[in-house]
Amino acid sequence: MEGLSERLSAIDAQIADAARSAGRDAGEITRIVVTKFHPASLVSDLHALGVRDVGENRQQELTSKHDQLDLDGLRWHFIGQAQTNKAGAIRRSADAVHSVDRIKLADALDRVAEDDDVLDVLVQVNLTDDSGRGGVAPAEAERLAEHILTLPSLRLRGVMGVAPLDEQPASAFERLRGIADGIRGVEPNATWISAGMTGDFAEAISAGATHLRIGSAITGPRLDRG
Predict the structure, then answer these.
(1) What pLDDT is recorded for position 226?
(2) Is the CB of residue 101 less than 8 Å from the CB of residue 126?
(3) Would strands 75-78 and 53-56 be described as parallel, antiparallel, or unpaired?
(4) CB–CB of 144/99 below 8 Å?
(5) For residue 138, what is the DSSP state?
(6) Per-residue tens of pLDDT for the chain, all 226 residues
(7) What does 88-126 look like in DSSP terms, one character per residue?
(8) Where are the beta strands (DSSP E) in the chain?
(9) pTM
(10) How wide is the angle at C-alpha 87 spanned by C-alphas 85 and 93, nearest 5°?
(11) Burial 63-101 (b: 16+ CB within 10 A, else e)
């Protein structure tokens, strides 16, 4: 627990420094701790340290941890690639889905809504030249956003992106910010920019990121997946 606290404090200090350098208020930035391949007990430890936003990449882990824990104020962010046949399971556990990258998935998430529940979603944008990677093509992002706005149980919050490995993160995040600006023209309240991980969150903050997804720099080494 002591090591976890120290790592969390160190990252928060780096976020604050990066925000100051960018002329931004660190209070406007949400730090999401990615807990994949770690047990639910780690989420409990993080909650005790004040963490209120955690992220999961896999539906099975999201569902398992969500169902094991009942922690006041904890928000679950699904940040991995989503299959349409898992939409119901994801929706039952997630407070926000960052990885909506196609109309079919948006429709599936809307279709499994219960009662008057409204789910926060982000348009995931593919910032690479590889069409096989997750995310909608930049040119199609606004069209997907417009479609999401027609679905009554989804609330469009903004965009999500991952910097390519073969490009400087700063330039990739500037492109994402431009796409985010276009989507805000469609929906002014879609102000979230989910970008930045351990190695590039300073560049993401400079480009206007509002949500950072940080894993092992806070959680420590992951458990054996086997």
Answers:
(1) 41
(2) yes
(3) parallel
(4) no
(5) G
(6) 789 999 999 999 999 999 999 999 999 999 999 999 999 999 999 999 999 999 999 999 999 999 999 999 999 999 999 999 999 999 999 999 999 999 999 999 999 999 889 999 999 999 998 888 889 999 999 999 999 999 999 999 999 999 999 999 999 999 999 999 999 999 999 999 999 999 999 999 999 999 999 999 999 987 655 4
(7) HHHHHH-SEEEEE-SHHHHHHHHHT--TT--EEEEEEE-
(8) 30-34, 53-56, 75-78, 96-100, 119-125, 154-161, 192-194, 211-214
(9) 0.95
(10) 135
(11) bebbeeeebeebbbbbbbbbebebbbbbbebbebbbbbb
What is the Cα–Cα distance from 147 to 32, expressed in whole angstroms?
A: 27
Residue type, 215: G
Question: What are the structural domains of the chain?
Answer: 2-219 (3.20.20.10)
Which residue bears the tokens 């009662």?
A: 115
Give the β-pairing of 211-214 and 154-161: unpaired
Contacts of residue 75, defined as CB under 8 A and 6 or more positions apart, other chains included, come to 52, 53, 54, 95, 96
Two tokens, residue 106: 């948006």
